[in-house]
Amino acid sequence: MSQLNLFPLFLSLKVAFMAALVGIAFGLPIAYYLSKSKSKLSDLIDTILTIPVVLPPTVLGYYLLVLLGRQSPIGQFLEERFQIMIVFTPTGAVIAASVVSIPFLIKSARTAFSEISRDIIHAAKLLGRSEWSIFFSIIVPLAWRGTVSGVILAFARALGDFGTTLMVSGSIPNKTLTMPIAIYDTMQSGDKEMTNLLVMIMTGVAVVSLFSLNRLEKRWGRRTW
Predict the structure, then answer these.
(1) Residue 117 covered by a domain
(2) pLDDT-based confidence at residue 220 (cuts at 50, 70, 90)
(3) 151 with 102: CB under 8 angstroms?
(4) Which helix (H) or strand (E) segment is 176 a member of?
(5) pTM here?
């Protein structure tokens, strides 16, 4: 058995945490818009954002490579102007994990937002509150349980992502090698003992993370109400 390297574990936790933050920053406003809009545009946006749930990870990773690769307009612009590379970097891993996990946060938060009484929102508007003020001071606190559940799902999905992350960030040791990819590599190399050890570690981390986040959800939910 080769020597245990915990870098993939720490990277996976970091990537999942960053992906959850990205989901909160971008997913919650989108979920709020989708919860109150009945237009065809909102249906189109919802469809596009849900595609990562049904597309094979390799297909999704390919799209991200085409969009953000060094030969793409975006990739060339970032590299020439800011010396930023996305593909085969930890940043690429975060983007890949964010794309595959954000639909889960949006779906959960959207459902929670839709259950809020419209009378409360109308009353706030009559009092002169802006949309952003209503969103942060009324909508988010009232939908806190659904929001936290969405964050938990997004974190868990990002933590276990394999195919899309592998396509975008690769499996560079001590740079972009996340835990799921490390497990795959050790299995391919025939190191069963290391594979079993990494699987147990990953399972334990996933259980502890979800249990802790669920406890926080219940505690914060009680404080909110």
Answers:
(1) yes
(2) low
(3) no
(4) none
(5) 0.88
